[in-house]
Amino acid sequence: MGTCIVFVFFPILFYVLNYNFVLSNISREVIKKYVIDFNYYLAFYSIAVNLVYVTLMLLSYQNVKRQSRLWDLKNISMLFRKKMIPTISVIAPAYNEEKTIVESANSLLNLSYPEYELIIVNDGSEDETLNILIKTFDLVRVDYSYAADLSTAPILGIYKNPSLPKLVVIDKSNGGKADSLNAGINVSSKTYFCGIDADSLLEPDALLKLASLSLDESREIPAMGGNICPINGCTVDKGSISKVQIPKNPIARFQTIEYLRSFMAGRLGWEKISSLLIISGAFGLFRKERIVGIGGYLTERGKYKKDTVGEDMELVVRISRHMHEIKQSFKIRYSFNANCWTEVPEDLKSLKTQRYRWHRGLIDILYFHRKMLFNPRYGTTGLVSLPYFFIFEAIGPIIEVQGYIMVVLAGILGILNIEIALLLFITVILFGVIVSLTSLLIAEREQQYFSVSDIFKLIGFAIIENFGVRQLISLWRVGGQLSIVFGKGGWGQVKRKGQKNE
């Protein structure tokens, strides 16, 4: 219903504003005026969204400087003192991850952190994921007591090795990622848990940098998020990255720019104004008691009898909602230098599937938490961040796609004059390039991720992506929204190549 309203909103607005003109002119002239007006609508929309991006970039730059200064003040030996930073259970759901599971497990077992455990949850894999784990780490099935606070698919067995006390492997019936995380939460024994994708690699000090944010706040921190970087193109040696390079695959390179823009010019800015609502499912840290208290991740077996394909964002929104409702002061944090490296899709089909489900998840979350929208009871979350996601992220792609169609029509009808063309170029293309390049600058400010040659390649891709790539992704997002209207969708399957080993 909402999607249909967005599609007819501008024709209705045009009709109301140009009532006399519509009645007194032939259809061709009315169509021409509508096309011209819509081009201006698109330009004004682009100005609005880019003003938001510019504001977030300025806030992000300030945040990076502050976080960097505070990290430099921290002494590593101090962080390893008992009870200085919280204990953590790292939970890694795994479904058909036989290509990457050993490298990921080795990486997660060698983190620089004073007290943590690693819980790998085999979610009914149909490949050799469980057997590879058992064989590689010499695991045996054990009796293991835990509180089943959250309802999950049946746990079939728990495996350990006395020589590796930090490692716990759960074998369970398939229930999906959210269900696996809930199972891991049940078994976990630490204050916080860290949800991470099983095909991802954390830098050795990533968990330390992320958890150390708890020392910078007097308010409660129910959730923290880390930085996500594409691992495609990097060389992995025994569970750690030995050489950082940008992906060779062009599709993955475009995503590198996109990730930099999303994390460096987005989440850092939202965190600065206490309005962060997205913590990536690839690397997030949550206070266990708070998550159990709100019913864990959404599943059909859980408190709300509901699934979602956007469980990472939904959980953060629900935490924020709960904390506002109980009037508890809090802040959700994001670390710019706590890096998690994960594989991104390298083919268009997998990328399209991923974007469909991301957008479906966003729409589902906004509807489920619609009570918070424009509601002052929920502070900046209800008045700023959720309205932004509703206006610019949820319905924005529909406006963009309609605008691109109108630009093409203007060209066909011969009414795309220099003034309109220049305005659209500045607002849609030039601003997009500036935002992407500034995000790269912010990312490289405190630590150099890429070589000089790789930076120049990324600059080139930051420019090229504005000429077709971003438009294609907007089209896919509209497709994801339409799939909700027609009752289609699901997670789909994203191809994994596995990491490049030396």
Tags for this model:
alpha/beta; 13 strands
Briefly say what this structure is:
This protein is an alpha/beta fold and 502 residues long. The protein has 17 helices and 13 strands.
Main sheet makeup = 10 strands, mixed
What is the general shape? Answer: globular
- State the helix count: 17
Average of the residue pLDDT scores: 88
Q: What fraction, in percent, of the residue positions are helical?
A: 40-55%
In total, the number of strands is 13
Strand content: 5-15%
Question: What is the end-to-end distance?
Answer: 52 Å
Strand order, biggest sheet?
A: 3-4-5-2-1-6-11-8-12-7
Order of helices and strands: HHHHEHEHEEEHEEHEEEHEHHEHHHHHHE
Indicate the structural class: alpha/beta
Low-confidence stretches are none
How would you characterize this protein structure?
The chain has 502 residues and is α/β, with parallel strands linked by helices. 53% of the residues lie in helices and 14% in strands. It has 17 helices and 13 strands. The chain has helices at residues 2-17, 19-24, 27-73, 76-79, 101-109, 129-137, 177-187, 206-211, 250-272, 288-293, 311-325, 348-368, 379-394, 396-413, 418-446, 452-464, 469-485, and strands at residues 88-94, 116-123, 140-142, 155-160, 167-172, 192-196, 201-202, 223-230, 235-237, 240-243, 283-287, 333-342, 500-501. A ten-stranded mixed β-sheet has the order 3-4-5-2-1-6-11-8-12-7, sandwiched between helices. A three-stranded mixed β-sheet has the order 10-9-13. A hairpin with a 6-residue loop joins strand 4 and strand 5. The radius of gyration is 24 Å and the shape is globular. The mean pLDDT is 88.
